[in-house]
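Q: what sequence does this backbone want?
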């Protein structure tokens, strides 16, 4: 292990030695000689052959040469420490490589390097993550680690799949704008309380995306691991959204547009307003919106009744199944258009 650890360290040091050798060629020659020796040892290990013991001894002796003169009794314990350190260096290097491969695959497949906590990945797309419960012990952590690999491999075919947005529509289908005959379909999966979803919706609207594509809006309230809403009142808004769509899809389209683009009389965006009010206050606000949309009294009563009905709960269950099991979403917004699945914030390019 000492020679392998030495090779790893020499690889890292090589960058600095290459720079120094521009000015001191003798340093480069000495480094190259040691590097070739380390590589020869590693290559023998790969072929299951014995490493040259003299190289291992050279490394240990060079590290212990000063100690042996002043503190001879320290040589044996320090030698053992070097062996242990070498094992740790090799283990950490292998672990880092495995984790790097895992993170790269996760970014390619899901748009985030962290499968279980998508928002914690600085390299991924801007998303509101669908987080899994944190492991409470090492056994659960190990199981999570292997299950994440499984999720990645299961979802790899998604990258090679031709995505047709209309295949994932859930009835009733609500389009973001007026339906355009002959225009291609798109699907936006959003959470009413997700700030990134709001930004994405606004960017699509401003760029004319909704005029180019018949864009279906799918409300998916993200659940916390304990079962509650990640964003306050998201489930309630989704219930009213689908209840309104069952009566008239135009009502639902107006509801999402006001939620994401309009402000109250104090200039506060309505998404922010919903995050700071109670369930009852949120319900009254939604009902007042429907009145603003000129919903008839009979239809308003029907929407209120439907919002807590088994029918709407059934729609939300279908949405959950589509999002989690068919599209394998890890963070939203998730968009499907032009035969591809796009993770995170929409950016007009």
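A:
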């Amino acid at each position: 292990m000492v020679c392998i650890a030495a090779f790893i360290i020499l690889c890292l040091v090589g960058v600095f030695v290459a720079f120094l050798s521009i000015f001191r060629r003798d340093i480069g020659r000495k480094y190259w000689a040691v590097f070739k020796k380390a590589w020869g040892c590693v290559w023998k290990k790969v072929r299951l052959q014995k490493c040259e013991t003299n190289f291992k001894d050279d490394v240990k002796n060079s590290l212990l040469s000063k100690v042996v003169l002043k503190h001879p009794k320290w040589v044996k314990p320090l030698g053992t420490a070097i062996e242990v350190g070498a094992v740790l260096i090799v283990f950490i290097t292998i672990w880092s490589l495995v984790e790097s491969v895992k993170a790269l695959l996760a970014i390619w497949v899901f748009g985030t390097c962290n499968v279980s906590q998508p928002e914690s990945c600085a390299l991924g797309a801007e998303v509101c993550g669908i987080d899994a419960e944190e492991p409470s012990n090492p056994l659960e952590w190990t199981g999570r680690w292997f299950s994440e690999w499984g999720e990645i491999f299961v979802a790899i075919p998604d990258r090679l799949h031709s995505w047709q947005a209309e295949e994932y529509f859930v009835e009733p289908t609500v389009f973001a704008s007026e339906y355009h005959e002959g225009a291609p379909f798109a699907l936006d999966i959003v959470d009413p309380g997700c700030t990134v979803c709001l930004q994405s919706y606004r960017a699509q609207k401003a760029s004319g995306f909704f005029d180019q594509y018949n864009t279906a809006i799918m409300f998916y309230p993200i659940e916390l691991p304990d079962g509650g809403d990640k964003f306050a009142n998201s489930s309630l808004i989704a219930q009213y959204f689908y209840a309104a769509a069952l009566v008239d899809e135009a009502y639902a389209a107006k509801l999402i547009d006001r939620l994401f683009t309009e402000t109250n009389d104090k200039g506060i965006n309505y998404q922010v307003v919903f995050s700071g009010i109670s369930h009852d206050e949120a319900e009254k606000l939604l009902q007042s919106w429907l009145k603003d949309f000129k919903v008839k009294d009979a239809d308003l009563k029907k929407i209120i009744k439907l919002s807590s009905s088994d029918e709407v709960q059934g729609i939300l269950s279908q949405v959950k199944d589509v999002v989690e099991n068919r599209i394998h979403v890890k963070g939203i917004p998730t968009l499907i258009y032009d035969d591809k699945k796009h993770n995170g914030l929409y950016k007009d390019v």
